[in-house]
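Cross-check.
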Amino acid sequence: MDKSDVTLERMRTFVRVAERGSLSAVARELGVGQSTVTRHLRELEEAIGVPLLSRTTRRVTMTDEGSRYYADSIQILRLVEQAGDEARGTRGASAGTIRISCTAALGVLHISRLIFAFQDRYPDIGIDLSLTDERIDLVREGVDIALRLGPLTDSSMKLLALGQSRRLLVAAPAYLSARGRPAGPQDLPGHEGIRMSNIAGSDTLALQGPGGERHAVPFGGRFRVDHGLAAREALVAGRGIAPAHHWLVDDLLAVGRLEVILPGYAPPPVPLSMLIVPERAGIARVRLLVDFLAERIGGIPGIQKPR
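Predicted model, tokenized:
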């Protein structure tokens, strides 16, 4: 083989295997057999003349040559895609697929609807929406952008601050009838708390009072869960009190299935951010979705956009 056998298809296969570390995972992602992925890699290495990957029974890792080739390949593939966008002009922005990862409950209740509106405007753009509360490796999972609640530390991604998510203390009327309504933060330790097991320190409830004073209240309960939608169901079922994002319970508050308790005391808001893979930020369709979400996100109940 010679250098003319270095095709974009083989290069893309190599990049995804390098990112995911698994031939079988990439085969499933591309919708081809694992033998096809193996053949692409073999043909690429033969054309270049150096081994790019080191294979073991459990994992595939890059060689030193592979790491250098990967960095160059990323840039080449990005330029190829951008060149296609520019050649197609306006139409280039409205075709292709975007992969987005989002905090699960927010994605189900609100972001999915925004995506429907986006696709109504750009019907040729496909969206692959992954819902998870885990902090995944965006490059490894092939994700273009991610919406995340909470503080972020990944400095390798482009970060766009979307605002703050306001939270409330809420409970069902049936629970309050049975257990009584707290008159102040000092009453909360005697109540059942619905806690998030995937949030550190959920056994203490931080509140800010009407005068700006801060309270740290012991917060216990028999039910812990790692998903916001399950916490929502527990609240409706009268299982206890919980600090909830406004967007998680706004519809239930509107019809009286939940009530705000201690309205003068609120848990601190949580930052909502968008992470963008730098190599994907310049692609036209990705820019369109980033701008669309940044514009519409303030319409979600309880999201306070930055000034």
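The chain has eleven helices and 15 strands. The radius of gyration is 24 Å. Passed to J.P. for a second look.
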